[in-house]
Amino acid sequence: MADYNPDRCPVYASFFGAMGCAASIIFTVFGASYGTAKSSGAIFSSGVLRPDRLMQNAICAIMAQILGIYGFVASSIISGDLKEKMPLFQGFLQLGAGITVGLCGLAAGFSIGIVGDAGVRASTQQPRLYVGMVLILIFAEVLGLYGVVISIMMLTSSRDATTCIY
């Protein structure tokens, strides 16, 4: 309480936390939807040639949907810490955490969509390429995982902020 300063707890601080909460879910869902849509076109067109590989090739769409879960986790953590009166520092960290996981999820979704599209089409013609496609998809998925790990680290340190008195 000794370090309490009313300037550190402005009324608009929670706005930044709410924007971080929104950014995390919005951007990761955009990435997940792009990855799903882009790879699904290849999955269905390749399914005409090789219907037996349809479920095997669906891994691209599944991996893209995991990105939405990353955004959901970060949004849930942020929303649990939102208060009407909170330190500006905490609001900024929540905004940064939301943008971090959101944009990493968006980039990973783009990567999964492009790799999934090309990989499914190629592995349909040459099945030995499937393992290589899965490895590259894992590398793309890890980009989103990096974002959620850093986001959680930021959110953990945001709890050490100044306590605001009403």
Short description:
This protein has 166 residues and is mainly α.
Could you characterize what this model shows?
- It is a single chain.
- The chain has helices at residues 13-49, 54-57, 59-81, 88-125, 130-158.
- It has 166 residues and is an all-alpha fold.
- It has one domain (11-158): Up-down Bundle (Four Helix Bundle (Hemerythrin (Met), subunit A)).
- α3 (59-81) runs parallel beside α5 (130-158).
- The two termini are 13 Å apart.
Between the first and last Cα atoms, what is the distance in angstroms?
A: 13 Å
Low-confidence stretches: none
The major pleated sheet works out as: none
Content of β-strand: under 5%
Membrane topology: Multi-pass membrane protein
Domain V-ATPase proteolipid subunit C-like: 19-78, 95-154
Subcellular location: Vacuole membrane
Protein name: V-type proton ATPase proteolipid subunit
What's the structural blueprint in terms of helices and strands?
Elements: H1 13-49, H2 54-57, H3 59-81, H4 88-125, H5 130-158
Helix pairs in contact: 1-3, 1-4, 3-4, 3-5, 4-5
